[in-house]
């Protein structure tokens, strides 16, 4: 692999470019830069690590103004690697830009850059993560088992991406942890009663009973105190109605997926003078008491599982971490369809920042090394007063240190 000079590329710098490329050019100016690519003998661009960095040519910069500036290719930053392990792909946007007039820079058709014989930067490249060996995958945490103001337990499933024995037990994620219940600001809320549906013994009035936060948001029933739940179904049909069984609405299935059990309350109740009254169970006929529990089946047990987060993509400044997210139905990986709830799909990437990037120039090697770079147009740097920035102060060290006439 050898370095060869790439085609000339013109770029208008923004404040975000200072970290790698230098400071902004004066208003109406842009900077023409030549750079080198590492290429195979067949001309294919490859990663810089395949070339000897000692032989890499220095980049050069020149200023241009308005329409004098040739078109150039602009690139976005590389995306995160498509895989957290093994070989993946990174992508970036490549567009042709040109300064149409001083201060007015715009994207143009790619053909304009092509007509100037400009080498188009690659918009995809191969990336390599850690070896795709066995790794632990975890599901999302369950809801906390605690009632408000108390402590409980939440759980999650932990599985090995390959055979169980191939994963390292010392790095196995925990499957349960203590959790604190929600604040005790949840209250039962009821609607008005609906009309009576029939005669005494058969007639029912129904109302809605919901668990709400202090802000009025509907919560899951488990967030409210179950023993204090108001009745949602009352007997009706006559001012005086003998005791009979009044079954309440079914509660939620105790399983979020697969088979489970649901419960309901059954009370022995009647009316005396039009007023509801609850009686002991012995006052009602035991032979026709409605069932208080039944089996239930939710959607098939499909769950989202995630791997651990990758390392941050940048050692300084804002970068990206990625992870794999998979849907499993039991032991089977689901690659098609919508078995897992897409609304509950965990994030596959997140921003990260290990430390801030330095804004000052690297430490100087001493006064003996203070000399202008041959590739820098130091006369123009002095003319447009760019010595105040470390990038040009270093590139034109001798000129910037010279006393002003």
How would you sum up this structure in a few lines?
This protein is mainly beta and 405 residues long.
Task: List its traits.
405 residues, mainly beta, 5 domains, elongated, disordered N terminus, PLAC, repeat, PLAC domain-containing protein
Description:
The protein is built from 5 helices and 29 strands. It has 5 domains: 2-130, no CATH class; 136-180, no CATH class; 187-297, no CATH class; 302-352, no CATH class; 360-405, no CATH class. Mean pLDDT is 78; it is low at 1-25. The longest helix is centred in the N-terminal third of the chain and has 6 residues, at 110-115. By secondary structure, the protein is mostly beta strands.
Biggest sheet strand order reads 13-11-25-27-28
Beta-strand percent range = 25-35%
The low-pLDDT segments are 1-25
Cα gyration radius (Å): 35 Å
Outline type: elongated
Note the gap between the termini: 48 Å
Number of strands: 29
What portion of residues is helical?
Answer: under 10%
Counted by DSSP, the helix tally is 5
Major sheet: size, sense and barrel closure?
5 strands, antiparallel
Record the SSE blueprint.
Elements (H helix, E strand, L loop, with lengths): L1 E4 L3 E3 L6 H4 L7 E6 L1 E4 L20 E6 L6 E4 L11 E5 L2 E8 L2 E5 L1 H6 L8 E5 L7 E4 L11 E5 L2 E3 L15 E5 L6 E4 L13 E3 L2 E4 L5 E2 L13 E3 L5 E7 L11 E5 L2 E7 L2 E4 L14 E5 L4 E5 L12 E4 L2 E5 L2 E3 L14 E4 L25 H6 L6 H6 L1 H5 L4
Antiparallel strand pairs: 1-4, 2-3, 3-5, 6-8, 7-10, 8-9, 11-13, 11-25, 12-14, 15-17, 16-19, 17-18, 20-22, 21-24, 22-23, 25-27, 26-29, 27-28
